[in-house]
Specification:
By secondary structure, the protein is an alpha+beta fold. It has 5 helices and 4 strands, in the order αααβαββαβ. The radius of gyration is 20 Å and the shape is elongated.
Length: 156
């Protein structure tokens, strides 16, 4: 596979299998996609090199690891020059409570997914981290009552 070669059905099969269980032994992945082990391993390595596979992670249950409170936080900045947008994104991305940072079009500039133990920890995050950033103008917080769907796998 060269860098500019498009993905084929085997690549998509491999990525589908790995999205469901990235811990499968390479022999099992190869069987599921109908290829030999060495060819499958080579394809996976190339998918990583080309950036299609960013990394392999374990998806944890936030409740069981002591982070049961999930907040959606909308943030409006004071201005929109590119340096400030990048500075804000970098600052909040560095905070361990923040799992997702999305730059938005619309009334708010960013949406954050923040995972904490309880409302006191979220209050501390707001007061001592988020609202101390000089570019922050407005913050709107919503408590997530239920995760109806939280699926990290992409449709391929």
């Amino acid at each position: 596979m060269t860098r500019d070669k498009k993905l084929d059905e085997v690549d998509f099969k491999i990525m589908r299998v790995l999205q469901q269980n990235a811990r499968l032994e390479i022999t099992h992945v190869a069987t599921k996609v109908g290829r030999c082990t060495s060819a499958t391993l080579e394809r996976i390595e190339q998918l990583e090199e080309r950036g299609f596979i960013k990394r392999f992670v374990a998806i944890l249950d936030r409740r069981l690891v002591g982070r049961p409170t999930l907040m959606v936080t909308l943030v409006k900045l004071k201005s929109h020059y590119i340096g400030q947008l990048d500075e804000f994104a970098a600052a909040v991305s560095a905070e361990p409570e923040v799992q997702v940072v999305l730059h938005l079009a619309g009334e708010f500039d960013f949406m954050l997914q923040v995972t904490v133990f309880d409302s006191a920890e979220y209050k501390s995050f707001l007061e001592h981290k988020l609202c101390k950033l000089p570019m922050v103008d407005k913050v709107h917080s919503s408590l997530v009552l239920e995760e109806c769907k939280m699926e990290p796998a992409l449709p391929l």
